[in-house]
Sequence to fold (249 residues):
Amino acid sequence: MGRLSNKVAIITGAAVGMGAEHARLFIEEGAKVIITDVNEKDGKTLAEELGDNAFFVSHDVSDEDSWEAVVAASVEKFGPVNVLVNNAGLSGPYAFTADLDPATYNKVVAVDQTGVFLGMRAVLPGMVAAGGGSIVNISSAAAMAHLSGTPNVAYTGAKAAVRGMTKATAIEYGPHNVRVNSVHPGAILTPMAKNLNDAETLDAIAQSLPIRRFADPREVSQVVLFLASDEASYMTGSELVVDGGRLAE
Ligand SMILES: NC(=O)c1ccc[n+]([C@@H]2O[C@H](COP(=O)([O-])OP(=O)(O)OC[C@H]3O[C@@H](n4cnc5c(N)ncnc54)[C@H](O)[C@@H]3O)[C@@H](O)[C@H]2O)c1
Fold:
């Protein structure tokens, strides 16, 4: 028996990076996984790699209508949704607040903040009807403390909002046995980290961390797996930091 046997999970933004690794680990642990992403090419390739227990749906998390289609496709393919991992995220370019154009700000908030709200909103009725579920919202260590080398007010604000929305929804839905928790990664070696920083900067960030390296995505997937599984049955409204010790300083 896997740790997610009999669970149906939607993972957003799972074509590459951490989301793809969450999907791999969830399948290894017995889940049926709906991979969603705006990146159709890599999403479809991953679903083929993972076999019959994976299914790709093209999806923009900031689009309200497409959420209904994702949940309907999940139920039709695998049955009622037990787990939602709100993983999809955009960083946007590093820019000081006065230099960030409002269109970029709004785009980051639409994906990183509103997308999480829309996802929770879409799966909650089904989870309540089924007698429970687990929602894992991927925030960031940036929700708790800002790194001075990465100016990004939109991302920091949206990730802090996810931390708050997680607690609000956890309290509202605790009586229905729907658990809602947030995960706060620090420096994780994914396409996002590589696109934002050159090799020299990546090395400097690694050397600044207590653990002196970036995390492999699977080191976050293990934490997401735990929160998704029944092993975390008494955890809701909580936040798990996976940052190599950065916030402890
Ligand atoms: N990499 C890090 O160091 C780090 C640190 C803290 C938090 N995070 C967060 O972890 C999550 C995963 O990050 P990652 O590093 O794997 O990122 P990534 O850029 O490597 O992958 C993100 C995925 O999300 C998808 N995506 C983007 N916009 C989307 C949208 N509107 N709808 C659906 N899918 C969309 C992308 O196509 C991509 O496949 C994000 O929420 C990110 O903010 C990352």
Q: What stands out?
A: The longest strand covers residues 178-185. The longest helix spans residues 102-130. The chain has a mean pLDDT of 96.
